[in-house]
Each structure stands twice: as C-alpha cells, then as structure tokens.
C-alpha cells in the first residue's frame, strides 16, 4: 500500500517536473483559438495522440470530430494539448473521482475519460446549458464512455454543493469570475495529493490567483494558460 502510494507520488512528480513543462512549452500563449478551439499540436516535435486499442480509437475519433465540426460549442473548448495534459494528469495520479466544472460539448471531458478508462474511475461534469449537455451526452455515448460519466445540468455553484465524495482531480473551465467560489466549495473535498487545474488563467480574478499561489498548503505552477495546483500532503 505504502509502496504503491510512493510509486504514484513518484509518477506524479515526474509528470509535474519533466513532462508538463515539455508539453506546455510547446503550447502557444494566448489560449484558445476561436469558438471550437484548436486541433492538432503546436510543436513539430509532437505527434498526434495515438490509439492504444480500438476503444481509444473510438474516443479519439469523437475528439477529432469535435475539433473539426463542432465549432458551435458553447464557450471555447480547450486546446488539444491541454486535453492531452489532463488525460496524462488523470492517469499518472491514478485519479478515480474527477470533477469538471464546464462541460460544453465534452472535449476536455473526453480527454480525461481516456485516463479514467485506464484508472477505472468516474467523471462528474457540470454545465448550465441544456443544449451543451445534450450534445456532450451524445459525444460520450458515441465515444463508448457514457457509463463513465455523470453530467449534472444546472448552475454548478449550486449543484456542486451536493458532491460528498473525496475528489482526486478538479478541472475548472466555466464562468471565470466563479473560480474562487468553486475552489472554496470544493477544496475541502479534494484529497491531499489531489490536483486542481484551471484553464484560461489569464482571465482569472486576482483573488483566485492569490488563493492558489499564496497558500503554503498548495503548490501551484502556471504553465501557458493553465494552472496546476497540488494539495500538499
Ligand atoms: C469554456 S466552456 C467549457 C469547455 C470544455 N471544458 C471543453 O474544453 O470541452 C465553458 C462552459 O461553462 C458553462 N458554464 C458557464 N457558467 C456555468 C455555471 N455557473 N454552471 C455550470 N456551467 C457553466 C458554459 O455553459 C460553457 O459550456
């Protein structure tokens, strides 16, 4: 058990120190492109994600379809590199209970679901927009991962109060002025060693940035447009 935890911690550290900077170095500043986000990668050294088996192939096909043809997605979906980073974080930290605020059509969620398929975990994702929820559900079903995800429709500031189980990884990507409120409500549920990641850090309130960078119980790195915060043990 202790050995396993040390192994997981070691992997997480390796990811944080070596892999993440390499990935994010390759990601241009300034966030996403127009609605619908960007596909592909930003470095000539990086290859597109490769499917390990037919199940991954199915998920990657839906991800490609979202990038290519679902440009009417509400909000702007994360760049592909951020999606890949999230998958990597989920799998490397062996996350079993992942929470996302801001589903849109399910682009970031599908990347995390690739990791959750490997860890045997589950995603709970919130969105206030009924149209987005419907489209996300279709995308999850088409990708064959519908049973690994619960979509909660409604205002996440209200709905997230119903969460009770310890959270391994929390991804914030909804109303930017609301990040501090989400963090205050959900931080007590985040397990030690757990991770909070937030997209569009350039649009964050100063209060949120202070909350993740000035608390000695947290270790935060801001890389490109994404913050990654570890709740220290
Ligand atoms: C930037 S998009 C999310 C993109 C998604 N994470 C992705 O990369 O595929 C933001 C989403 O947050 C949702 N949203 C905004 N305010 C919300 C709230 N108070 N509660 C729940 N969802 C909200 C919007 O409807 C929108 O779909």
Provide structural commentary.
- The chain is an alpha/beta fold and 233 residues long.
- It has one domain (2-231): Vaccinia Virus protein VP39 (Rossmann fold, 3-Layer(aba) Sandwich).
- The chain contains eight helices and seven strands.
- The chain has a seven-stranded mixed beta sheet with strand order 3-2-1-4-5-7-6, with helices on both faces.
- Helix 2 runs antiparallel to helix 4.
- The protein is globular, with a radius of gyration of 16 Å.
- Residues 25-40 have low confidence and may be disordered.
- Residues 74-78, 102, 104, 106-108, 126-129, 132, 155-157, 173-175, 178 line the site of S-adenosylmethionine.
- The site of S-adenosylmethionine has 22 residues, from helix 4, strand 2 and helix 6.
Count of distinct structural domains: 1
Spatial arrangement of strands, main beta sheet: 3-2-1-4-5-7-6
Overall body shape: globular
Number of strands: 7
The CATH superfamily label reads Vaccinia Virus protein VP39
First and last CA, distance: 16 Å
For the record, the CATH architecture stands as 3-Layer(aba) Sandwich
Overall mean pLDDT: 87
Query: Number of helical runs?
Result: 8
Heteromolecules bound: S-adenosylmethionine
Helix content: 40-55%
What percentage of amino acids are in beta strands?
A: 15-25%
CATH topological fold name: Rossmann fold
Structural class based on helices, strands and sheet pairing: alpha/beta
Which segments are poorly predicted (pLDDT under 50) over 5 or more consecutive residues? 25-40
Order of helices and strands: HHHEHEHEHEHEHEE
CATH class placement: Alpha Beta
Rg (C-alpha, Å): 16 Å
Task: Give the biggest sheet.
Answer: 7 strands, mixed
């Amino acid at each position: 058990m202790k050995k396993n935890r040390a192994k997981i911690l070691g992997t997480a550290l390796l990811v944080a120190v070596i892999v993440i900077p390499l990935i994010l170095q390759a990601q241009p500043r300034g966030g996403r492109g127009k609605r619908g986000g960007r596909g592909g990668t930003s470095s000539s050294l990086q290859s597109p994600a490769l499917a390990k088996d037919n199940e991954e192939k199915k998920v990657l096909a839906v991800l490609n379809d979202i990038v290519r043809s679902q440009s009417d997605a509400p909000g702007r979906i994360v760049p592909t590199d951020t999606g890949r980073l999230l998958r990597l974080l989920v799998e490397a930290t062996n996350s079993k209970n992942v929470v996302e605020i801001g589903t849109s059509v399910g682009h970031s969620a599908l990347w995390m679901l690739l990791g959750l398929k490997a860890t045997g975990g589950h995603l709970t994702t919130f969105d206030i927009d009924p149209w987005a929820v419907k489209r996300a559900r279709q995308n999850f079903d088409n990708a064959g991962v519908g049973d690994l995800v619960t979509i909660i429709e409604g205002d996440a500031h209200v709905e997230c109060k119903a969460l009770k189980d310890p959270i391994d990884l929390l991804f914030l990507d909804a109303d930017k002025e609301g990040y501090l409120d989400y963090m205050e409500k959900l931080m007590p549920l985040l397990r030690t060693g757990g991770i909070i990641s937030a997209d569009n850090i350039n649009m964050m309130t100063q209060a949120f940035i202070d909350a993740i960078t000035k608390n000695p119980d947290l270790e935060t790195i801001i890389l490109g447009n994404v913050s990654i915060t570890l709740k220290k043990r």
